[in-house]
Amino acid sequence: MRYVLAIGIETEIFKKPVLEVFLNDRFLGMSDLEENISAQMQKHKKGDLLDGWDRGNSTKHPERIFDIMVPKKWIIYELDDSTFKKENTLEIIPRNLQTNNMNGFITKMDKCRIHNVMLLPKDWFSTNGVQKIFDHCEGRNVVIEFDECGWPSAPTLWSERDPVQLSVPVSIYNKDITYKIIFDEILEIYVLGREQRVHEGKDTSVHVNLKEYMEAARNNTEKLVPVDTRKIYACHPQKSFENNDATTMLMIGYDTKVQLGQITTKYHYNED
């Protein structure tokens, strides 16, 4: 199977910075960063974002506006699954970053902000990529839900300055980024680790156990009405199925349609 690794960046150029990418200490490539490219904050209606889920007309508050940060520059690598081991390390490193430091005063510097990273099978990068995710999850005992921050986008770095915002991924300039790439036994594809948090020495999975998720929600919310997890059915357009103790929940980001659409356009037309 062929995969596409897409790295969305924002840059401010002073000299000649580069971005290097390594997989398991193997050099994948280097990109010269030659021009100022800002990410774009786009506004999208909730109903439009979810129409690929066949939920655009039935979702609550379809007119609600979401701000989505969309990189204008994507660096693309195509990889064969034979490249991967069972567990892999992906490193994305800005290098040759310079400033005009004069006696401690800096007015110009190279900046590289990595906004988003995606790794998916190549044929999922299409105008109906969201539906392909649904189709792939069919029959895998997985309930798909959507959230403001979800797979397959991989947050880059957590804010180091504002602990109140730790639940929101915040990109930081000029930071090396490391991800684990693992073979997901449920989806039977290689995936980027959902977050760079470590729990008991293991990277956080892209899945959560549905029963454990609901029990944790009950414990943390006094007003939550008791829920029988066996009756939480898959959301449309998935075919409904009765859950069991092994059912997992896969949170997919609201922005998936937008991000996949832009990557697809740039990749297919070989745009920068």
Strand-helix topology:
Elements: E1 2-12, E2 18-23, E3 26-32, E4 40-45, H1 46-49, E5 65-70, E6 73-80, E7 87-95, E8 111-121, H2 129-137, E9 142-147, E10 177-184, E11 189-192, E12 198-199, E13 202-203, E14 207-209, H3 210-220, E15 248-253, H4 256-268
Written description of the protein model:
The chain has 272 residues and is mainly β. It has one domain. Helices cover 14% and strands 35% of the residues. It contains four helices and 15 strands. Strands 3-2-7-10-11 form a five-stranded antiparallel β-sheet, with no helix packed on it. A hairpin with a 4-residue loop joins β10 (177-184) and β11. It is globular and about 65 Å long. The model is unreliable at 158-169, 195-203 and 227-234 (pLDDT under 50).
Secondary structure category: mainly beta
Number of domains: 1
Give the H and E element order.
EEEEHEEEEHEEEEEEHEH
Q: How confident is the prediction overall: mean pLDDT?
A: 80
Distance linking N and C termini: 25 Å
* Rough outline: globular
Largest sheet: 5 strands, antiparallel
User: Helical proportion?
Assistant: 10-25%
Strand order of the largest sheet: 3-2-7-10-11
Note the beta-strand portion. Answer: 25-35%
**What's the number of helices?**
4
Task: Output the keywords.
single chain; 272 residues; mainly beta; 14% helix
Give a concise summary:
This protein has 272 residues and is mainly beta. It contains four helices and 15 strands. The chain has one domain.
